[in-house]
Amino acid sequence: MSGRCAFRIERLNVWLDSKHVLKDVSDVIIPRNVVFSIMGPSGSGKSTLLKTLNRLVETYPNARVEGKVLFMGEDIFSMDPVKLRRRVGYVFQQPNPFPHMSIYDNIAYPVKALGLAKSKREIDDIVKDALMKANLYDEVKDRLHAKASALSGGQQQRLVIARALALRPSVLLMDEPTSMIDVVGARKIEELILQLKKEMTVVVVTHTPQMARRISDYVLFLYDGRVVEWGPKEVMLEAPENDLTKMYVAGRFG
Amino acid sequence: MNAKRAKLEKSYLFFLPGALALTIIVISLFVFLFVNALPAFYHAGKYVPEFLPAIYGTAIVTTVAVLLAIPLSIGLAIFIAELSPKAVRDVLINISDLMAAFPTVVYGLWGLTELGPFLKSTLFAFINRYLGFLPVFSGTPTGVSYLLASMVLAVMISPFASSLIREIYLQVPRSLDEGIYALGLGRWEVVRIKLGFIKRGIVGALTLAFGRAVGETVAVAMTVGGVVAINKSLLSPGITIPAYIANLFGEAFSTVDVASFFMLSLILLGIGTAFLAAARLFIVSEQREVRTYGKA
Amino acid sequence: MIEQGAKFFTAPPPTTDLGLGGIGTVLQGSLVLVATALAFAAPISVLAGAFIAFYPNSFTARLARQLAEVVVEFPTIVIGLSVFGLFIVDLHWGLSALTGAIALAVVIMPYMTIQISEALRVPRAMFEESLYALGMSRLRTMLFVMSAGRRGLLTGLLIGMAKGFGETAALLFTVTTSFNLFFTSFNRPVSAIPVLIYFYGLSPYENWREVAWGAAFVLTVLVLALFSIVRVLARGGMSR
Question: How far is it, in rounded angstroms, from Cα C162 to Cα C165?
């Protein structure tokens, strides 16, 4: 079992600035090639959980992490974090492309810097491939060398996704990827997520239960740093066991 | 209505003279400069050729100084902002601020008596030997030269430029940092990308340094040599506008050419102000870019 | 670089190419010049700075601030040139301690004004409203804010003083180059430390250059001392 799931989390505790943010997250298994949503009210620690999975949380000066997290059967805390982050991509809530670089360079630069390709043709192919996978290629193919800052919010977010995809990760972590985007752009990104799960595992922090319903296969409900329950979408959203979950799904709070 | 009443208050009248005095003094300064320079404008054709060596010298020395300052200031800024441990950081910032405010004569004296002779027999001789075929490095190196003045000037302007760059660098939003780490890239890439992001700010800071360096008198006058000629080699002595005014004004005092010196001053002012204004434009546009990042 | 005795501070500098002498004349000259310059510049700076801080929207304040910012970046030699031209030539005052002090005053005034206006901004924001609510008059309020911000004011004045000691270019024309005279009255010429360093440093005489270094050392110590005081003041202000 352990070799076949993307992530397995046991007894995870995270403190930020002596605040206990994630409390005893355990028995969580994220299977492969699914869309796994994390939902919960703001402040419940969803972003922190996501950032632990690619060890980004450790770049915060006062962060403390204890517990066990297995990625494809390997303990992530004994891995080189840099290598981990190449296999586990991350997309932020706020689109953060490199605004002063061209669309092309936004994808090409990390590829070159990480030594994933050398020749121009290889890099051109990677860029085109990534943009197509992110459903952005048709919209920008005539202006690959325009500055990234010229794109709309939704397009910038898809550029960021393309940038992450160019590194061919096996997991993509997304932190509320559509909450800062307009409705049309958001829908395009949700469609994209559904496509991506064929090739990789997608773990998404969703800001509404409705979004979780639209895109997920599995849902985890996080409240005040604790896992309330998690399971297949149908169970979680139609007939959850826990009362708290029922209330959240019904829109009573959050 | 309230403003009008405020104007007649005791406190307003109490402090007003200070501001008025300042204004009057500054304006009269300007007026005086212009008025005295006017006679020279009519004969501009006669004077400008005489000033050419000084204008040339100013251009050369300041440009080379800023070029030398680029690695110094950016390097120092990055070192303080990203790489140094906390304890070292404050010490460096204090030293840097101190250097920026130090009396310029001391820099000049050091350049003239310590750095100059030292470089003459080491670095300059080296450059002359291997690159002497280039006209810009020809001739025997002397104890004072354009290059020496540029180097001293570079040391003088780097602390200030570096603190400007450091402030701009620290304003880059953290989400850019995180995005770069999330891609599996390391610290050097973060530095490279952030530097690219603040490109305009860096140009602004260096232009500002240029504008201020143009007016630097004492340190340059002591290290450039005071030779009123256009020399093509960087290793030979020359003159810059403020040094020209400083050295030669004593002689011209007795002649009618006083006005020409005022005109030269205005030229100096003009150059400096132009660069300072340009710098401000760069920095403002940079701030706008930083503030709107990520808000799609 | 530096090896003299206490006599260095009082004796006049050497005029011949022998012996070492001291920097007594210029030391005294600098003290006099800076003190006088401050006497001129400080009141104007404080008043103008306060005016800009308290009435930032008035036309005069905005004008004064703009002018100060422009002049602060001026090459100081131009200022020296102008003061020379105006007072020494046109008004026929001739070189005197007064002209030197005026040149220094014009140089440090804009800088101090801006420092002071910035230093007063924070205390003003902090206290103004509560003081008005207590029913204090505008004048009392302003005086209170100035007293609360006195650390910043002092810092501005100290930095102005440090600049005054180190300023060379403005004094080149307004101060005498014969360094042997002690200060007698305001009408007679006087000299200053940095000017000595400049001329003696450029001279071909070995011993003169040593004197220049000695003077540079004294100047450095002086400036460092002033800046240390400023640093101490700044730290003390944060404790609240």
Answer: 5
Superfamily per CATH, domain C6-238: MetI-like (1.10.3720.10)
**With the CA atoms of A68, A72, A74 and A78 taken in that order, what torsion angle do they form, in degrees rounded to the nearest 10?**
-80
Residue B65 is predicted with a pLDDT of 93
> Which residue(s) pair with C214 in the sheet?
none
Mark yes or no for CB contact B105/C78 under 8 Å. Answer: no
Q: Are residues B34 and B54 both part of a single domain?
A: no
Tell me which amino acid residue B64 is.
V
* ipTM for the whole complex: 0.81
B12 and B110 in one domain?
Answer: no
Interface with C, mutate which of B11, B20, B239, B264 (most C CBs under 10 A): B11
Cβ-Cβ contacts under 8 Å, B18 against chain C: 43-51
Q: How far apart are CA A101 and CA A107, in angstroms?
A: 10
What is the pTM assigned to this prediction?
A: 0.81
| Interface touch B186/A82, C-beta < 8 Å | yes
**B26 versus A2: which is more confidently predicted?**
B26
Summarize pLDDT for C162-205 with one digit per residue, the tens. 988 988 888 887 776 655 555 556 666 777 888 888 888 887 77
Residues B88 and B233 occupy one common structural domain: yes
- Identify the structural domains of chain A with CATH numbers, from first to last: 5-249 (3.40.50.300)
Please tell me whether residues B139 and B1 are part of one structural domain.
no
User: Is residue A90 less than 8 Å (CB to CB) from chain B?
Assistant: yes
Average pLDDT over residues B56-61: 88
Measure C215 CA to nearest chain B CA, in Å. Answer: 9
Domain boundaries in chain C? Answer: 6-238
Residue B296 lies inside a defined structural domain of this protein: no
Mutate to test the interface with A, among B168, B174, B180, B183 (most CBs of A within 10 A): B183
CB A167 within 8 A of CB B184: yes
Total structural domains in chain B? Answer: 2
A9 DSSP β-pair partners: A28, A69
pLDDT of amino acid C2: 43
